[in-house]
Amino acid sequence: MLGLPRDCWLGKTKGEKAMKTFWMVWVEGKPSPTMRHDTKFAAAQEAERLARRENLPVFLMEAISYCAQGPIVWTAVGE
Fold first, then answer.
1. Which of 61, 64, 65, 70 sits in a 20 to 30 Å window from 1, CA-based?
2. CB 78 within 8 A of CB 17
3. pTM of the model
């Protein structure tokens, strides 16, 4: 998967602080999303609102991992 290390998908490594899962909403053809939603339900509500307003496909996205500046290290997001 995307050349990420296998253990990236299995959860945090020893001594690593877990990041809370979040969701974002993206309207196709619009700029990248900037708002984090703490719950899937809140993101889904926003997606429905935007779908009605924009009349375009709206995607609900869940953060699964991230990397940071410096030596690139992928870290799983979640529990």
1. 70
2. no
3. 0.69
